[in-house]
Amino acid sequence: MKIRVSILSLLTGVAASPIVFGAEQKTAPKPVVVASLSAAGSQGASERDVLMAKFYKVTEVKGPPGVDPQVGGLCPMPDGRMAVAFHRGEVAFYNPSKNEWSIFAEGLHEPLGLLNEPDGSLLVMQRPELTRLRDSKGTGKADTFETVWDGFGMTGNYHEFAFGPLRNAQGKLFVGLNLASSGDTVNEEVRGQWLPIGLERKEFYGDWKKNSKLAGRMYSRVPWRGWIMEVDPTSGKAKPYASGFRSPDGLGLDAEGNLVVSDNQGDWRGSSELHVVQKGGFYGHPASLPWREDWGKQLPLEVPLEKLNKLRTPAAVWFPHMSYANSPTQMVSIPKTPAWGAYGGQLLIGEMNVPKLLRVTTEKVKGVWQGACYPFIETAALKPGLHRLAFLGDKLWLGRTHLTWAGGENLGVVEPTGSVPLDALEINLTKTGFKVRFTSPLSASCNNKALWNIRSYTYAYHVEYGSPELEEAWITPTDVILTEDGRCAELIIGELRENFVYDFFFDKLYTAAGQTPLNIRAAYTLRKKF
Amino acid sequence: MLGLLLSVSASTALSQAPPPSAGDSKVLPVASAPKAASTKKPRLVTLQMAEGLRFDPPRLEAQPGEVLKFELENVDISHQPHNFVLVKPGQVQEVVKLSMEMGETGPNKGFIPEHPSILASSGKVVEPDGKVSLTFTAPMEPGIYGYVCSVPGHGMVMYGALYVGTPMPPLAKDLNIPQLTLEKGLAGGGRRPFVQRIFMPQSGPASIAVALPGSLNYCFDAGNCRVRYVWSGPFLDGTKHWRGSGKDLGEMGDQAWWRSTASLLRFGGGKEDPSIETKFLGYTLNDGLPEFHYRIGKQEVFQTVIPSGKGVEMRFRLPQVKSKVSVAPDGEGLWKCPDGVERKGVFEVPSGKAKGFSVFLERKDQPPQKEASAPTSKNSHLHTP
User: Fold this and answer.
1) How many Å is the Cα radius of gyration of chain A?
2) Dihedral, A62, A64, A69, A73 alpha carbons, nearest 10
3) Nearest C-alpha of chain A: how many angstroms from B31?
4) How do residues A300-316 score in pLDDT, each as one tens digit?
């Protein structure tokens, strides 16, 4: 059992930065590298993978022949097929019962999202527009490519990706528009109104190595870059919904129907984040601000930090960089079915750099959204590049991509085997600390507070790329109270710090039968105390 | 047992071997490769780590016991660090898995795990724009030895194969190298007609390239709703755009022979109103040929382009038109509009015929040598007529 624990501690330690496992880890469970174990054991899967396989079965689906198998969009169809959008512009249906692909459309420009409509058509978000694909002649191929909305700017900058669409319960669509990157300039011809605030247009065609530093690391010089937009699918009319985004690759709905958006670590993003997005909100990256109606002529980079802090809503959940996620992707709600058991209704999110899926829970404390992320399924079988997620019944489909970054290709399918692991199911804030619920009852002796270790730290909100973990402190609860059924532990913590991550280590816990947690960490982002 | 001679050193020396050109999927020549181990000067081989998680070339050949000097060059314009690990046959994914399990020791060891299947490695990551040279002796045992970048998240995609004393299968059937590397990004794979949305040179960012039946192609700009140019010959190579970050443009098979400067159609008088708004509405495919749908001001327009003689026919449908339409020829070309009457260089299509009419554009001069001209390499500097 002990050995297993130390191997499992590796789960969250893949490519971990020295910051995470720095010098001050007196009580930290030291991550153990299993490379030597695997090397000794030759070909076989690592012990972690063997263990994960007890709970989750992962199978592989190859993309259609001749198609670049990088997945930009997934959409489960009512007839049991999966619609998949690929990097070079194909949309294809996969029929799992026949193991057959059929190409539905081709020639789109970097499609990054798919959504079916009640009338059988498919919406696809491609670089230049939101498009409705229709098979009007019943040939099995799209013959109508209707532009639903193209009222946003494009400069030709490679980083201006377009994500979505997501449909909420009211039938409104949401799309996310990336900022441009100073890794490149803009084309001579752009679409949309050029924003006069900022580096002069002519400087974009000068010495870019020099001028790029003045443009802002990420910039928004054509409309709605860095915004989440609300689109009416019938009229094609769009309204700005929320601003302050950098690279909102993941748009999802939580179980209550709230819009959640993920964003990637970078400038103004100390670590990767999940936002619960409300209309009119500003979520931290200032490049998008000049497109607000009430904005004057102020350069976004010259807005004082105090003003930005007043305007912004901080992320509900931080994904601690490296230890939890490098580039989190799309969120989907876990189905409330027996197969997924107690996880039903929680959010699942993918990750690009390592083969890992995380869960997310959120709660509102005194009107402020906050919550936790939990490593969930981590096995080499998933492969990296977990960009798009979709449930087809109880099966979780994974679409991989990489572009020019770390990642993978083709598709994976995950099914629970029926065995239930010991996992921390949900962490909630209490007046005196935290309450942690588990999937199985803990042993009564887990009320020993020495078994519980929590590390807290925060991230800076600043123009620089990413942030180190700051003001780190190790915490041992002053008291631990287990409920009678052993499924819930109340941890009494002395002083709670707002705007800090509480990074829980569960590696010393066990059930009465000696089962140890499958995942040994979870990170709660505390924004507001009771 | 394998007679391995390994030395890794940072090097700034340029390779003597001809570097493989980007996107060249051919294999480096193995001319005068010795038949067995020797103390001869090592053969120089340049292996690039390129954008889109690729080794270029994706496969190499060597004789058993041949001494090779690899020049590993990280030319990835997306500035990713990469490494190089050469392994025994069938061991690539095992090494990738081990590299992902290195935990916090990974960065210090260049994400190169310790494993008996590893025959040679770069020893560390090769930083962007960096070079590492590596000399080693090919194993005496013939086989297909894999090489891989084991930086986390790279190894599932970024690998290749060293064929030692083993014949190589045809490139397209080689399962030991990633398929993506094989696929040159010819839009539509040469099929005609074909529609491909992609960044195009000298057009707006919302461009649509169309391959017509035969050998003509055109670029439609969905931003300002007009055909921007027409070219003959091969359609479009999107390799750089699709393999790279996406900033590269699609490459046309030849220069454009006609370019527009404004919309062809004028309503209510014949003068172009620059403030008039255009709105792109999409397209339908009829046997693969697109009919574009857009509005100029309040006027709804459907437009199909089809090959015709030495040029193209632009078919317009304006189902709601109530007045005459003017067609203003533009750019270099011979224009005809059988449904219109020419007045001062502008065709006037009467309201009775404006619901459906055609405009014919013929290539003005077509010197025979043009047909044989090589594809342009720098489309962003295309000659404008």
Assistant:
1) 23
2) -100
3) 32
4) 999 999 999 999 999 99
Tokens of B31: 């001319």
Please name the residue that has the structure tokens 């962003």.
Answer: B380
Mutate which of A123, A189, A235 to disrupt the B interface (most B C-beta within 10 Å)? A189
Q: Give the pLDDT score at B222.
A: 98
Q: Report residue A6 as tokens.
A: 């130390």
Give pLDDT tens digits for B139-179. Answer: 999 999 999 999 988 998 899 999 999 999 988 788 898 87
CB crowding B253-280: b at 16 or more within 10 Å, else e? bbbbbbbbeebbbbbeebebeeeeebbb
pTM above 0.90, yes or no: no
**Is some CB atom of chain A closer than 8 A to the CB atom of B261?**
no
What is the complex's ipTM, to 2 decimals?
0.91
Q: Which of residues 149-208 of B touch A (CB under 8 A)?
A: 151-154, 156-157, 179-180, 183, 185, 187-189, 194-199, 202-206
Residue indicated by tokens 């798009």 = A388
Could you tell me whether strands B311-317 and B299-308 are parallel, antiparallel, or unpaired per DSSP bridges? Answer: antiparallel
Residue B104's nearest CA partner among A20, A290, A292, A303 is A20
> What pLDDT sits at residue B272?
63
| Per-residue confidence (pLDDT) for residue B182, from 0 to 100 | 53
Residue A352 CB partners (closer than 8 Å, separation 6+): A326, A327, A328, A329, A384, A385, A386, A387, A402, A405, A406, A407, B153
Contact between A128 and B206 using a beta-carbon 8 Å cutoff: yes
Kindly state the tokens that stand for A393: 């019944």
Q: What's the one-letter identity of residue B109?
A: K
Query: Does a structural domain hold residue A399?
Result: no
Stretch (H or E) spanning A2: helix A2-8
Nearest-CA residue of chain A relative to B97?
A: A380
Q: Which residues contact B196 (CB under 8 A, 6 or more apart)?
A: A89, A106, A107, B187, B188, B208, B209, B210, B211, B235, B236, B238, B250
Q: Spell out a b/e string for A242-265, using b for 16 or more CB atoms within 10 Å of the CB, else e.
A: bbbbbbbbbbbbbeeebbbbbbbb
Percentage of chain A with pLDDT > 70?
92
Is A416 a member of any domain? no
Say what the pLDDT of residue B213 is.
96
Q: Is A519:A11 a contact under the CB 8 Å cutoff?
A: yes
Q: Report mean pLDDT in 10-residue bins for chain B, 385 residues.
A: 36 34 36 48 93 90 95 89 95 89 86 94 93 94 96 90 94 81 76 97 98 97 97 94 91 95 83 80 97 96 96 97 93 93 93 96 71 39 32
Structural domain contains residue A202: yes
* Interstrand relation of A328-333 and A347-351 (parallel, antiparallel or unpaired): antiparallel
- From the list A87, A385, A68, A265, the residue with the least C-alpha distance to B154 is A385
Judge whether A480 lies within some domain.
no
